[in-house]
Amino acid sequence: METEMNYQSWLDQIEAFVSAQLSPYAERLAYHNLNHTRSVVTNATRIAAHYQLSDADRFVVLSASWFHDLGYINGDPSGHEQRGALIFKEFANPLLIEDNLIAGVIGCILATTLPQKAVNLLESIVCDADLYHFGTTEFTQKDALMLEETQHRLKTDIPLINWLNGSLRLLQSHQFCTQHCHHELASQKQANIRELEARIEADL
């Protein structure tokens, strides 16, 4: 019970820390903001419940979900996973979190690097939690936020047809890592692909 309380205490501290870190960047990060991070944590919680994870494994998955995009606050998209992992390690060490848990969280964060390379169930859950919207009706809205963030970062307008073609290639090349998400989300992902194809055709 004491260990279980430690996990929840650590998660509460993690939520407070990440929320405080991301809040000032709401304007610059239209997509990779606190709302996205919270949704990934929610998705990860849902998938973890399906797989009936132990308290330790659930802690690893949720911690990685909180930190997976925190590297966006101090650099470009490239390498943000490594920076997020480093921020987590610096945060975790004073809390005396066990080394094997820290290693598990870092592995899950790094696995979300595109193209995703999950090698175990925990990494697979975090990867699917991150890109969960690929298989939901929220995809179009979230893709538009990603476009907004990218244009803000590059300080230039991106032709919509170019963006839609890139989004289509991304969806077509993506595979959900867990059987659960493949079963639950693959159908809507195919619908999102068809919608992208229709928008591209209409714009030509």
Keywords for this entry:
mainly alpha, 2 domains, 70% helix, HD_domain, HD/PDEase_dom, HD domain-containing protein
Write a concise synopsis of the structure shown.
The chain has helices spanning 2-22, 34-50, 55-67, 80-92, 99-111, 121-130, 139-154, 160-173, 179-203.
Describe this structure in words.
This protein has 204 residues and is mostly helical. It has nine helices and no strands. Helix 5 (99-111) packs across helix 6. It is globular, with a radius of gyration of 17 Å. It comes from Dyadobacter psychrophilus. Residues 29-144 form the HD/PDEase domain. Pfam families: HD. This is HD domain-containing protein.
| Coarse shape | globular
Number of strands: 0
Over all CA atoms, what is the radius of gyration? 17 Å
Question: Strand fraction band?
Answer: under 5%
Low-confidence stretches: none
SSE arrangement, N to C = HHHHHHHHH
Q: What percentage of residues falls in helices of 4 or more residues? A: 55-70%
What value does the average pLDDT take?
Answer: 95
- Main sheet attributes: strand count, strand direction, barrel closure: none
